[in-house]
Design a protein that fits this description.
The protein is mainly beta. It has helices at 73-78, 248-252; strands at residues 14-15, 31-32, 36-40, 58-63, 69-71, 79-80, 92-104, 112-118, 124-130, 138-139, 144-153, 160-171, 182-187, 190-191, 199-203, 222-226, 237-242. The relative contact order is 0.20.
Length: 264
């Protein structure tokens, strides 16, 4: 239970008795506190479950030559793995915010997947992910904490199997204004380097942006794509980032796109 709340709404906080002429704007004592946030990508098991793996979150749909919509409990019946809350529930709750990937056995460039769900704070969000071709995995940009419904949109030509799962992009809890605001990333307790292919970083959408597009726009807050070593359900991942706390948008990013209509 929380027993304490915000101590101050000051724009800046100086602590201590140290003094150095010319350091502070008005000659005050103390050292300015920084706004660094250490984030651990934690699941109920302590580390993120496997990404992009049938054991994590998979919805495998054998379908005929018709468009289809799977939503709510119907979707859960077809899903499996530890990232599914429970078969028969109305939503799939992930351990950490993750992007969605999908592929099909036949040519699907005219098709797209409409994913609707919620972010880490329970805000509605949606994304359209266009198919890339037979057997080619299409990867979404937005990181969902929960999935409410998935709809296949567009003309469906021929029977196929559609496989839907999660990727290795893990969403951040605060807005990453630019990649330079990410101070460090650790994997299994060791400082990792993006230049060596350990991870990739994508900054969030501009805090001033009105997010209207359902396809191709970055995640509202940004994400880290962990590449090597791969998420395997045992490795701990952390990120140290700078957070601008001056406004809601600068701290948490622009509001999500909450509904999608039309093609990508």
């Amino acid at each position: 239970m929380t027993t304490r709340h915000t101590i101050t709404h000051a724009d800046e906080i100086y602590v201590g008795n140290a003094f150095q002429g010319g350091y502070s704007p008005d000659g005050r004592r103390g050292i300015k506190m920084t706004h660094l946030y250490a984030h651990e990508f934690l699941s109920t098991a302590g580390v993120p479950a496997i990404a992009g793996d049938p054991d994590g979150f998979t919805c495998c749909i054998p379908t005929a030559a018709t468009a289809w919509t799977i939503a709510g409990a119907e979707l859960l019946v077809l899903m499996s793995g530890p990232l599914v809350s429970s078969v028969g529930a109305t939503v799939a709750n992930f351990d950490v915010p993750r992007n969605i990937r999908w592929s099909a056995c036949n040519a699907v460039t005219a098709l797209y997947l409409k994913v609707e769900g919620r972010d880490i704070y329970g805000e509605p969000m949606a994304e359209n992910i266009r198919g890339l071709g037979a057997g080619v995995v299409a990867s979404g940009m937005k990181c969902f904490k929960a999935i409410d419904s998935i709809t296949m949109c567009g003309a469906w030509a021929g029977a196929s199997i559609v496989i839907i799962g999660t990727g290795n992009k893990l969403g951040l809890p605060f807005h990453l204004a630019d990649v330079g605001k990410l101070v460090s990333v650790t994997i299994a307790g060791h400082t990792a380097s993006g230049t060596t292919g350990s991870y990739l970083v994508r900054a969030g959408a501009s805090s001033a942006t009105t997010m209207t597009s359902c396809g191709g726009m970055p995640d509202a807050r940004g994400f880290i794509k962990f590449i090597s070593p791969a998420l395997n359900g045992t490795i701990r991942f952390t990120a140290l980032m700078m957070v601008d706390h001056t406004t809601r948008r600068k701290a948490f990013g622009p509001p999500q796109v909450s509904a999608c209509s039309g093609a990508v």
